[in-house]
Amino acid sequence: MKLVTAIVRPERLSDVLEALFRAQVTGLSISRVQGHGGELEAVETYRGTTVKMELVEKVRLEIGVSEPFVDVTVAAIVGAARTGEVGDGKIFVLPVERVVRIRTGETDADAVTPIAPARVP
Ligand SMILES: Nc1ncnc2c1ncn2[C@@H]1O[C@H](COP(=O)(O)OP(=O)(O)OP(=O)(O)O)[C@@H](O)[C@H]1O
Ligand SMILES: [Mg+2]
């Protein structure tokens, strides 16, 4: 399994979610974060030049996926989040040692595979 952590523009979130849904990637967590891309803006101070870090609002998605879904997940995010301007964000793919679905005790790939909703009789 992998944990795909993506930082994207908030205004691209709904398109990213739609692209992930189309790719059948539906288990995810989202949080609002403040970030910085690494650029340094120089500002003057009376003792000389210093730097400041402007923080910008971003959205972080965390998506646990089994191996066959890693590439489609990354491609869906890139396709939907990219504007071509600086600040589009980043995607980190991290190894995951273990996943447990608490309700069933299923582990690893089984635990990140969606379960069909129970049939209504
Ligand atoms: N190395 C990093 N580690 C953790 N988070 C990062 C890192 N780089 C960027 N981010 C997060 O991603 C957000 C967007 O980064 P950004 O797209 O500006 O990256 P960049 O490398 O400067 O690319 P670009 O040149 O397209 O601006 C940042 O505000 C921050 O939240
Ligand atoms: Mg940047």
Q: What's the short story on this structure?
A:
The chain is α+β, with helices and mostly antiparallel strands. It is 22% helix and 33% strand. Helix 1 (13-22) runs antiparallel to helix 2.
Could you walk me through the main structural features you see in this protein, from its secondary elements to its overall organization?
The structure is a single chain. The chain has 3 helices and 6 strands. It is an alpha+beta fold. The chain has one domain (2-112): Alpha-Beta Plaits. The strands form 2 sheets. Strands 2-5-1-6 form a 4-stranded antiparallel sheet, with helices on one face. It has a two-stranded antiparallel ribbon with strand order 3-4. The chain starts with a strand and ends in a 9-residue tail after the last helix. The structure holds adenosine-5'-triphosphate and magnesium ion (MG).
Regarding quaternary structure, what we see is: single chain
Element-level helix/strand string: EHEEEEHEH
For the record, the count of structural domains works out to 1
CATH class: Alpha Beta
Mean pLDDT: 91
Q: Overall 3D geometry?
A: elongated
Q: Tell me what portion of residues adopts beta-strand conformation.
A: 25-35%
Question: If classified by CATH, what would the architecture be?
Answer: 2-Layer Sandwich
Helical content, roughly? Answer: 10-25%
Got a strand count? 6
Question: What keywords describe this structure?
Answer:
22% helix; four-stranded antiparallel β-sheet; alpha+beta; binds magnesium ion; binds adenosine-5'-triphosphate; 33% strand; 6 strands; Alpha-Beta Plaits
